Amino acid sequence: MEGLSPHADPAGRSLSLVIPAFNEEPGIRQAVEEADQALAHLASHYEIIVVDDGSTDGTAKVVRETSGGRSHIRLLRHQDNLGYSAALRTGFEAAVYERVAFTDADCQFHLADLASLLALTEQHPIAVGIRHDRKDPWSRRFFSWGYNVLVRTLLGTGVRDCDCALKVFRRDALMKVLPETQGFFVNTEMLTRARQQGYSVAETGVRHRPRLRGESKVSLGDIPRTLATLLPFWWTRVMFPTHHSPLTTHHSLDRRSWVLDLGFWTVLLVSVLLFFARIRSPLLEPDEARYAEIPRQMLHEGSWLVPVLHGQAYYHKPPLLYWLVMASYSVFGVEDWSARLVPCLASVLMVLVSYVWGRWLMNKRAALAGALILCLSSRFVYLGRMLTMDSLLCLWVVTSLGLAHQAISPGTTRWITWLLSAFFCGLGLLTKGPVALVLVVVPVFAWQALDRRTARPRLASWLAYLTIAASVAFPWYAAVGWQDPAFAKEFFWTHHVLRFVAPIDHAEPFWFFIPGLMLGMLPWTLLLAPFARYLMRRSGALARRRSASLGFLLLASFWCLLFFSLGGCKRPSYILPAMPPLALALGCYVDAVRLRVRRSFSFQRFPVSWSLAGAGTFVVLLLAVHQLLPGYARKFSMRAQVRPNQNLSADPNIPVICYPHGWDSVSFYLRRNDVRVYPPAQRQALIADLRARPKALVFVKSERYLRELERALPASLEFVPRGRQGNVTAGVVQHRIEVPSTVFAQR
What we know:
This protein is of the alpha/beta class.
């Protein structure tokens, strides 16, 4: 602009005012004239920049006519409509004075109120208005209030009226917070970036007027669009602003580096000692005994397709765990330890997968910290050693998540790792059903939606993913469904849908998993409070160290916790897949802040690092595994009273009976497939069966049911106890031996 040079008058003020306009022909003349009159009284040097954002009406023509050749009124034009944010940026970059303000073209502000804002910029880089007695409809005021609460909470803008279109900036601060997003999110973005860079923002009240001409460019349709911009902005600019490319910035992952990796061998040694120690402990009722007995009976009957239990098809879960246990039986024999070998091996592999994932996305220190936090959590050790589906499911889910994370990190989608992720997800489908797909796909899809820096797999990529995952499990589903049409309803509807929405058993409150997780991860749960403060920091060098990978770990862990908390049926082991990503997230935090802890003793102050805390935790857990867990297993298992009866049960003519319900430990340890179970309602049938046999081996729940059975026995039968452990008594029911009266006469 000729005749106008950028400067600030020491004796007065200089001000650039930007007015974005799109199809504002009815009111743009008034907006420019009011601005000219107000600024003439406020600044010794000023300019008015109208940015016509691709208007299709006569907005530009009216501005030219209104300017009347006045050089301080400038018109800038966009050929196409680029949006509110782009119009403001164009005006800001064209402004030449040391103070830059903007307002809308709807004439809803008294521009004389710029005086109070300008005064505030003497002490603060940014001054924003607060609309007093706002003249907008109630619905718009309500949505504005809700939005302001949201952005103050998520982004820490610290202002009460984020979208007030009357703001003044110092030019040096403005150039560092220029908007990059699109649409009406511009105010939120600029104020958030200002806070992150440490700029103070002052507020003052400004008057507000009804809109007299033209139409508002803001509608209800802008709310979802703004939210769709807000959440990714919050995720990538506030919560997890750092994004490193693991393939280029992290340690080499070649074969030689793994051989020399002391952290890898440390994690392997610790996990092997914790998970394979004392695996000969007896099987716990009911889960471990059931999951050991099903593959035993399948192997005995040669049924590799359909899981069977006591002669009936068992459609609760897919067969991958059973197949692996059957393979272990074939190699090592049918033993409780050979059955438990499968989940223990899966848990060791799970710790190693966590270490590899952590080393890939972070560094060796963070990976080592995360993997050790995982395998030194008592909850993970206890649940990971149990013979259930969940250890194996956890291995497949976390492996699939780690590969998917690598596949969609910046750049193009890496097809090999993407399809490998699908393959392991398919193994999860073959282990516990559709829940594996839910635990993997949802956090991956959510991360893509929140973090625009990731690769963007297209529909074809997702279809390929689902096809690979389904192809791993589909042959078994199809074969069983073809053989038994009742399979689909029982498996999918009863044991997946109904168990989730209307629990068949194990109904627990929403918060059920929280206490167990907090207590089971001690002492590492002590990190959660400072970790939460670390996550809530919105500025500073420490906040800038939060990486996108940390965000993905938290998404995966939180989704698993939320999903199972929403379900009606809850068992403690369900939470296992949430623990590895949570442990890695804590490892990221430990590496980021380099925590050192000092504890006070009565006689001295002794520095205790987290590494020493880990060593102490390992010793405690190792002692617990060697002493407490076997004792707990002996108390709540039935091996001690079942095995002494093996010689008796070896006779097939002696029936084995359970009352009032079955215990799978009985059939497992006795190697009997014909164990009979009688509920209380069939007590008369039980008595008839006992009468028909000269002798029967009976396992009965102690106290109440034992007394009931003894009272129901006829005089010709007697119950001879053979041992009791816990709440189950083993005994023999046999016919009483009648002593002839002549024997007494002879005596």
